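ok so i was messing around last nite and threw this chain in just to see what happens. nothing serious, just curious
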Amino acid sequence: MRDRRIRLVLAILVVAMAGVGVAMAATRSTSAKNGTVKAAKVGKFGTVLVSSSGMTLYRYTPDRRNVSVCTGTCATYWPPLLVKRTAKPTVGSGASASLVGTTMRANGAEQVTYAGFPLYLYAGDKKPGQANGQGFQKTWYVVSATGALVKHAVSASGTGSTTTKKSAWG
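result:
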């Protein structure tokens, strides 16, 4: 009898934790629907792309030009930067208007692209300036204002690299 109660409590906890994760990711995705791309200094990575609220933007290396392959659970933890279907993305300071565009996701939503590649936020970043998703599974990287992946931290002299912290999310 005691074992059954323990299993029941554990099952309830697992369901509750999953619900919190989905709610958290859904909140981040909803806040990203204005589709603004700008550049800002983000920690040791230098000047990279961020959303209108200053949240770091990422690129997923398995994506192809104008094709997002991050769907389902992936998109729960890595919400796409979206724009309303009738609107165009906004370009802020430091970003290049000629590199900003959109692509249609499998679900019909319009995802913002930069240099042709889809952009995402990371549910593990809680405040502007964080880059907790950097280097995750060697497939998620912040993006420079030129559209290049930033795989290593920038030293004070502009060269060199450091090991990036891996997150438990995703």
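not much to say yet. The longest strand covers residues 36-41.
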